[in-house]
Design brief:
This protein has about 280 residues and is mainly beta. The chain has 2 helices and 13 strands. The chain has a 12-stranded antiparallel barrel.
Length: about 280
């Protein structure tokens, strides 16, 4: 009798407890992730970020717009590829331009690898080339259009130069908290920047919160240039704040505001965009 009662108690206990404890709010490997400004998605499958930014740097600069698209594919095993491109528009009647102008930024492509180091943390490594396709006369206009919304890409996607690019990124999700960081190195290969710079380093530190359908995030971006002149170096620091909302499991819409933390740079940027992700 005692054996029968003990067996029944053990069976009822086994049915009452789940087979394994799920990790609270861990991000699924597929679907559109909340947007941490400046960081790439780490979801498996096809991910696309598309955005439009408007920048006004005041009377000493101009009013510019930039449309940027980034696409990547990561297989279930983590290996994949990415590509990115942008176009810019500068309004006339400013101190720099007497008429409306537009053009292309560099076209970028490369390979990547994504791996889950734990149930809550993803590591992404990428390397590629940013190929110069822009006009010689507009080498700084594209840079200006990305300086506040995307400081880390401002120089290595223009300046009449082809660049070699590499980056390591980590993204961590725990409960409602989202944390991320990225370190990149950009080296000019061919073009105007080879005479002025040895390389750029970019550090991005990001933190965010995700609750239900809504996500909030902010990033500090530190871009440092190693100049070709011995001992010369320059650094720029920017701040980007943003929010996003889940439309469907595969789609998020977001808005971001960019601001420079350097004393000599004025103005702000505002951008809207969407992140989509598909498990192919």
């Amino acid at each position: 009798m005692r054996i029968a009662v003990a067996s029944m108690l053990a069976a009822s206990t086994a049915f009452a407890q789940p087979a394994s404890e799920p990790v609270p709010n861990e991000e699924p490997p597929t679907g559109a992730q909340s947007v941490l400004p400046g960081l790439l998605p780490t979801a498996r499958g096809l991910s696309i970020d598309a955005r439009v930014d408007y920048t006004d740097v005041g009377k000493d600069g101009g009013k510019t717009g930039n449309a940027y698209t980034y696409a990547q594919y990561a297989s279930a095993g983590g290996f994949g590829a990415y590509a990115a491109a942008s176009v810019w528009l500068a309004r006339g009647d400013t101190s720099n331009f007497r008429e409306d102008r537009s053009g292309l930024g560099n076209v970028e492509a490369g390979g990547l690898y994504v791996m889950a180091t734990s149930a809550r943390t993803d590591l992404l490594v990428r390397a590629g080339a940013s190929v110069d396709v822009g006009s010689m006369d507009d080498q700084f206009v594209h840079t200006e259009s990305m300086l506040l919304p995307r400081l880390g890409d401002a120089y290595a996607t223009s300046t009449n130069t082809t660049w070699a690019r590499s980056q390591v990124q980590v993204r961590h999700a725990r409960n409602n908290t989202r944390l991320g960081a990225a370190l990149g190195v950009d080296v000019p290969v061919v073009g105007d920047a080879t005479d002025r710079f040895n390389f750029f380093t970019c550090l991005i530190l990001s933190a965010g919160w995700q609750g239900g359908r809504v996500g909030l995030g902010g990033s500090v971006v530190i871009l440092r240039a190693s100049a070709a002149d011995a001992g010369a170096a320059d650094a720029s620091t920017g701040l980007v704040l943003g929010g996003d909302v889940r439309i469907t499991e595969a789609l998020r819409a977001f808005v971001q505001v960019g601001h420079s933390l350097d004393d000599g740079v004025k103005g702000n940027s505002i951008g809207v965009g969407a992140r989509s992700s598909f498990d192919l």
